[in-house]
Design goal:
11-stranded antiparallel sheet, single chain, alpha+beta, globular, 11 strands
Length: about 200
Amino acid sequence: MPRNSIAILFLMLMPFLAQSQEAPLVSIPTHDAFFDNIAKHCSKAYKGEVVFDNDPSPAFAQELVMHVRKCTDSQLQIPFHLGDDASRTWIITKTGSGLSLKHDHRKPDGSNDPLTMYGGHTVDAGYAQAQSFPADQYSKELFVNTGIPQSLGNTWQMFIYEDKFTYRLTREGRDFRVDFDLTKPIDPPAAPWGYEDIE
């Protein structure tokens, strides 16, 4: 094919090539700011302590560590270690209609726990320092199917300030909160169950 024919064909295809670009991932300023405030701590780990729990569990009486382990433009992966238990990872994702919080639960062999990927989605603007995630429909059906319907009313909250990160779970009759000291980074733990170490 002559060069001038190739050039003409390319010019004709340009509008279609431009249309094949990925759609933008839209977001609003408060969600972006909240996401970015956590992402600033990427690769760092911090110790935490339970500051309120109206139904205490021995699982939370051991060393608690959060690790802002992996960050992309649209997702944050934050393992939450309870002593040697590396089964939990919080996953915050920009969805185009807000922020999603999921709890990735794994078994020691890395396989999925039956109770995994529950969480919620923002329903309002929130704040640069605070967001709430009421339970989504997937989670509600999962809670019913796994025999814990009392969790249908779950709302998870996260707060991020200069010196402190807070994870909170609330529902009728249940209130749990753990604070992490962001002023004292510690050595990051090993990869959580089901994940590979980052090189």
